[in-house]
Design brief:
Elements (H helix, E strand, L loop, with lengths): L1 H14 L4 E2 L14 E8 L2 E4 L4 E5 L5 E5 L3 E5 L7 E5 L2 E9 L8 E5 L10 E4 L6 E12 L2 E6 L7 E7 L1
Antiparallel strand pairs: 1-2, 2-3, 3-4, 4-5, 6-13, 7-12, 8-11, 8-13, 9-10, 9-12
Length: about 170
């Protein structure tokens, strides 16, 4: 009797179509979604938007993959000796890259969640060896409430700072 029940259950699962609906709305710092699942009525795809900024997609074969929102790029090629405001307003920083072929040993950049170099820096990135590049990938991103301000080393090397962020 158990075998018959299991067999009928498996047959029912094969012949009952499962329809899912997807909402591919990106998450952001201003409209976060706390892990909502939507179902697609026209195909076998599910999308889960989680609060950390990633979207997980499940295709009709059951394979899951993560998609991150495309990000805006802010680049500073100045020496940053006086600082530079890269972004005003709330955002989520995804990557920070600093250095380059003209960077000097001991060059550093302080990244603030502010409009000026006030308070404690959120990130302190330094170059150990001249002419190298440091890259930081932040899974899920780091939330900034006020803006992105970069303040650099007091020596004027031509290091390049690149930050990716989304609103």
């Amino acid at each position: 009797m158990k075998r018959l029940f299991i067999f009928l259950l498996l047959v029912a699962l094969v012949f009952i179509p499962v329809k899912l609906w997807a909402d591919a709305t990106y998450t952001s710092t201003t409209t976060p979604k706390a892990c909502t699942v939507d179902y697609c009525s026209s195909g076998g795809v599910a999308v889960v938007d989680v609060q950390n900024g990633y979207t997980q997609r499940v295709d009709s074969d059951g394979a899951a993959h993560v998609q991150e929102k495309a990000q805006t790029i802010a680049i500073s090629t100045s020496s940053l000796t006086t600082g530079e405001l890269l972004k005003t307003g709330a955002c989520r920083v995804g990557t920070i890259t600093y250095g380059g072929p003209t960077s000097g040993s001991g060059d550093y950049v302080l990244i603030y969640d502010a409009l000026t170099a006030t308070g404690t820096a959120k990130f302190d990135i330094s170059i150990g060896t001249a002419k190298t590049t440091f890259s930081l990938v932040i899974p899920g991103g780091a939330k900034f409430a006020t803006g992105i301000f970069a303040d650099g080393a007091p020596t004027a090397h031509a290091s390049v700072l690149t930050i990716t962020y989304d609103d």
